[in-house]
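Tokenised fold entry reproduced for absentees:

. . .
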Amino acid sequence: MSTHVSYTPSVLGFNRFFHCDLTPVQAPCYPGLVEPDPMRELGGFYSRQVPNKTLSFMMQPAADETYKQTAYLKQNQKSTMGIYQHFDQLHPDQPPCALTIGSFDGLHRGHQLLLSRVLEAAGGKQLQSAALTFHPHPAKLLAPRLSPPLLTTYQRKSQGLSSLGLDVVLDQHFDHHFAMLSAEDFVRVVLVDKLHTAHVIVGDDFTFGRERRGLTEDLTRFGAKYNFSVEVVRRLCVEGVAVSSTRIRSFLLQGRTRAASLLLGRPYVIEGCVVRGDGRGHTLGFATANLQTQAEVVPGNGVYATYVWVESSPDALLGVTNIGTRPTFGENQLSIETHILDFQTDLVGKHFILGFIERLRSERTFANQDALIEQIDRDITETRAIDAGLGGRPSLSKLDGNLIDSSS
């Protein structure tokens, strides 16, 4: 049996806090949920309704017009969770589960919707909650020249899934042998024989099996054959835009980090190690931390207001980040430089995470150093104003994993 679940907008007045232009895309989807500014509320879950039931993680208004999110089943999160790299590692007596399946690149709001639905269904049906994902991303193996750059590293995606309170995460090693499983063999071997799936929740664009031949209609048919129920969730939209990893990548490469944050439900982050630069920023009076990163998606060239989390510190610092080639000085090598406001410590060799709030301006050439210094002063003033308007700095979202201490 297959069911479709609809989601209706919350009444929380999102645009009072945060607004940006989102270019609409043509895609069948439900209206987006209205929620607080993702720069302030990074938990990732949000208010939604299913027919005849309002879920128990509704956001509640506070006296100062900020909002607090509480995730469904958070009070029942498990202290231990099974993480497996291959379905053969699952225990033969694995309890029946409610399952969702996907690559989950970015763990965006659409993914969060599926995962929260799994937690809710598992609680209601007395099942274990489970997620099936893949490593490497299937496109990396099957079409490496066409595979998209990933929003989230393998490590951070695993940490993010681990933070949600799921009972089981099967991070299936994706190789040519696994890719050759037919749609029915995938269902029979992995979902039924190994995961003991009783209920499956997928998006309406879900495909599976060799050459992605299996569609949601096929999954429903196999559910009837193998005795599990199927719930198809139509894709989530925010302000008319379908939430997808592809759309988020596009926004980021255009430098539209606010729009990307709307779809992610939190600021986009990259991480890396601080390396020694040429000291030019210090000479100008604005010392910078030069980030070396393995991130596959870096926002387009420009100057950004950013948050900075340094190693094991949970507190967000405020920064002005330049991504580009420093044309004023005739250079052409891409660099990511952040001037951290009200901070003097040398960070060379330290690990930090950079969260993008808003693009301030494009990178451009200045006539002289004095003109550049004046513009940097204006960038700092604008960044402070943006920060003040957000009403408080966030902790790093659990969906983006943990801070790493490079000294350990």
Notes: The two ends are 51 Å apart (CA to CA).
